[in-house]
Amino acid sequence: MKVLPKKPHFFKPILPGFKDGLKIPVDFLKGYKHMKNAILRSAGKKWVVKLKCGRLEDNWKIFAEDVNLQLGDILVFRHEGDMLNITASIVSNFPIARDRNNIVSSQNHTDSSIKIQNATEQLKIWVPSNPKGAERLPPGLVASESDYYLRRLWGNPSEDLPSKPKCLVTFTVGVKQKHNIDAAVKKFSNDFTILLFHYDGKTTEWDEFEWSKRAIHVSAHKQTKWWYAKRFLHPDIVSPYDYIFIWDEDLGVEHFDANEYIKLVKKHGLEISQPGLDPRKGTTWPMTIRRGNGEVHTLTEEKPGKCADPHLPPCAAFVEIMAPVFSRDAWRCVWHMIQNDLIHGWGLDFALHKCVEPAHEKIGVVDAQWILHQSVPSLGNEGQAKDGKAAWRGVRERCEKEWSMFQSRVENAEKDYYISKGIDTSNFTFKSNGIDPSNFISH
Q1: What distance in Å separates the CA atoms of residue 109 and residue 117, rounded to the nearest whole number?
Q2: pLDDT at position 150, please?
Q3: Is 88 helix (H, G, I), strand (E, B) or coil?
Q4: Which UniProt key words apply to this protein (predicted)?
């Protein structure tokens, strides 16, 4: 609840034309809009001044002359009592009013204009520490973050939310998988905001599910989850959530409980994670296959030559892009790394380690809560058949191309950074992970 001051006040710089009247701020007149007159007091005297449409008019000129009001003065108004009694004080030691006598005596228009301009500049708001574009706002008015909490159209805003979900789960979906998504959503409690990205444009078909009424639905034809993530999961939008799940639609969740998963992630200090994958189907990398002898794991062994460093992907600091879970801080970094034009996200999993430190300890797989990757092609069949090639082939080629492009951008960006710092990179080896995208199984 906002507490108003007992004696509201405001100040006005005295500018050319001031004798014709003076505008009173709307907030200052709250509760007094019916009043036709205001009583001005200064130096033991009082003046009854007509108030019209929030503007002091009749007798204002007399008041201005009686108190010898001049260009460059600052007039401070303070409300007194229940009626519209106003005490007016002239500030003569304000930077723009210090030379008041010179202004009056010389009547030098140029001098006055300069001082008035200085007054205007002094009163302008400019806060460099505010978010870009909001520098002209007072910091107390800046709302730099948002959320996906649904609010009412009525009542007190402070009473809209009996509780605020602490986690966000997103699925990129088509209606053909709605029953699988229904089963998945039921694994997430009311402490999760549900956000569905519809790549087939069909949203009303989900109305049969009660939970759909509290979910957020975003629709754009034939777009991937990383296209959606870059555009709808900005860190300042998802900042209220401790963890963000960015999941595919083809995940079996029989052995998964979201609340228990969060407990394990917190217990082991994982900033980026995923559930272990049932080894019976849909596995690609040894690192992400579920192990049955513990709660989590952060390291694995790969084929000889796959890992130049045992603490880097795919031997450690690695999760796949089908079902990643990010902490708020980790996601802020990852979101900035996602390239706006590379929509499939291939290769992103090999760069996630750049966003946490030490990555081989804070990126891991949760074995005690595991899922089954059903490997439904979904968007893979949403491509365009061309030159005798099947629709899925064009999508696959785009994925592989994006992986190579992403790797090149990472390497070039790092080179440019070191060069900008004056570091000689001639002896550096900027080496990609050595994985051939054509051997990668599509998600």
Answers
A1: 12
A2: 94
A3: strand
A4: DNA-binding, Nucleus, Transcription, Transcription regulation
Tell me the one-letter amino acid at 21. Answer: G
The CATH architecture annotation of domain 167-377 reads Alpha-Beta Complex (3.90)
C-alpha distances (whole Å) from 1 to each of 4, 10, 29, 157, 158 are 10, 22, 20, 11, 9
Report pLDDT for 314.
93
CB 252 within 8 A of CB 278: yes
Find residue 20's DSSP bridge partners: none
pLDDT lower than 50: segments of the chain: 1-4, 93-108, 432, 434-443
Per-residue pLDDT reduced to its tens digit, 273-301: 999 999 988 778 999 999 988 999 999 98
Q: Which CATH architecture has domain 9-139?
A: Beta Barrel (2.40)
Domain boundaries, the chain: 9-139, 167-377
Residue 277 bridge partners (DSSP):
289, 371
Helices (H), 195-352: 225-232, 258-267, 328-337
Do residues 198 and 217 make contact, with C-beta atoms less than 8 angstroms apart?
Answer: yes
- What is the DSSP code (8-state) at residue 65? H
